[in-house]
Fold:
Amino acid sequence: MTWKYELVIWLEIHVRVKSQTKMFCSCKNAVELAEEPNINVCPVCMWFPWMLPKLNAEVVRLGVIAGQAMKCEVNKISRFDRKSYFYPDLPNSFQTTQLYETIVGQWDVRVLVNWELKHFKIHHMHLENDAGKLTHVWGKTLCDYNRAGSPLMEIVTEPDFRSKDDVVEFLKELQKMMRFANVSDADMEKGQLRCDVNISLRKFGENILNNRVELKNINSFSSIGRAIDTEFSRQAKLYEKWEYVDQETRGWDDDKGVSNVQRSKENAMDYRYFPEPDLLPIVLTDEFIADCASKVGELPIDRRITYLNDYKFKEDDARILSADRDISDYFDSLVALTKDANKSNSYITSVLLAMMKEDAEVNTFASLRFEISELAEVIALVNKDELSSTNAKLVIEELFVNGGKTSAIVDAKWLRQTNDLWALEAVVDKVIESNPTQVADYKWGNERIFGFLVGQCMKASAWAWNPKIFNDILKNKLG
Ligand code: ZN
Ligand code: MN
Structure:
């Protein structure tokens, strides 16, 4: 029966802005780093009477950068509104948000979903403050206001999503964009990226929007997929029985794999929105917007498309190389130095990243003990046939562990390949001289001994040369 119905989804996403201080006061915006509850608080973010908020310019700057990263239009004038509701995590009984005139307007985000390029439209993005955190223990409720007043960006999309893959790939792309633009760490498990999923169904071919259910409390990409599947079949079953889908808010319980009603339409809240009297409108100049745009850099999706289309990389490699800005920047710089995208790719993905994964100290590109030019030198030597690819790995390992210079390592370890026939013949002569029994054996017709002699030559030359060269010289000498 599910084949009859089309999923229609839109998203409301809260992203924690990575500013130094909170949105309206100078308290540290360090939710995860706070050692104790209620240490990053002050009379402003506790909203004591007569305290006045002062907007943090850094939050505006990061918000505009995020808007540019999503290719959305930035509104030169935006305002704050009060959203009134009572809850113990909100000391002042209202949230400062933007409803009527938001800082970022509409446009779209491009996403590769199963390697097909799709566009998902953003309705708008606005700025607002976060609430505190409640913990329910021992029949009591504990309030921690370290998070109260932390800046959030709320991104609201259009109902453009038709599958869970659409949703998950979009969120992953959004997370990457926020990280590339350095506006948020956007870690779902840490609550820095929170997503409410609005789901409705309709029969294929219909163009209406039916009643939608808002799913909350989804904390990971995998639980989003499960929550959507479950809600899809719950609504489809109702329609099959000619029943109604109520417009309601449901909380997702990931352990049980079910959702429960949190709020129905009948007791929907009236938030009494009104213009915030204590804050001036945000007015942005063209210079400010242009300066923010210059901070965005090349987007992850564009890098991924370059890796796929221009460099013809495998999908997995393109995904790994565009997964975060450090990898991508390092790779792009290496290609700029070497003009060799393929070798840059393979030395980063299969050598360097593998070593970084195993190392507790050197696990970022910034902490590498060697300059990027040394890795470029390794690639240059390989391309000039002066270094074998086996030995290139040895050199990179040495650089990784002890740092230093590529040319010095190559020379110290006798790894430089040579096409100097005299030197090669000298090696062969030495091997023949020191293995008289084996040579005699071979001359008597024991062909298998030949491989052993080639191996001895390789060993004597520290595996720096191609065995084929020794093959030829040995054959010549032994007749
Ligand atoms: Zn404060
Ligand atoms: Mn919100």
Observations:
- The CA atoms of residues 427 and 461 lie 7 Å apart.
- The mean pLDDT is 91.
